[in-house]
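This week, study the protein below.
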Amino acid sequence: MTAADDGVVGGIEVLAFGFLTLVIGALLVANAWGIVDAKIAVTAAAREAARAFVESPGAGIAAQRAEQAAAETLTGHGRDLGRVTEVRVRGRFARCARVTASVGYSVPAIALPWIGGLADTTVTGSHTEVVDPYRSGLGAVDPSLAETDCA
């Protein structure tokens, strides 16, 4: 062993390991942000769907307007409509009725470059609105609704 070899026992492999750890960590953070971003998008889509439903001019078109509003919101957030798993509105189009819209979207849990997404996860969001109690053209309040629904 010469004096030039002093201290060179090993350690060069740590650079490769550190680089891989950095790359994998960055991918994990990016994937976690993708799920958070999808949650923001589906929550906004559910909110807009519920609002479109309760503000529709009539019961016949309310569900269609809700689905259209959800689709427009997801498109506005840059989401692919082919990955939407559900757009559902529960409730009736009646004065003081509670209407809940739910939107589901499939997101890859692990997205890798050149490989694509692996292990899809469904992210859901929901929002509840009340049909306006003072709205004209809807008739009397349905007696089956709870008193707290219509204040």
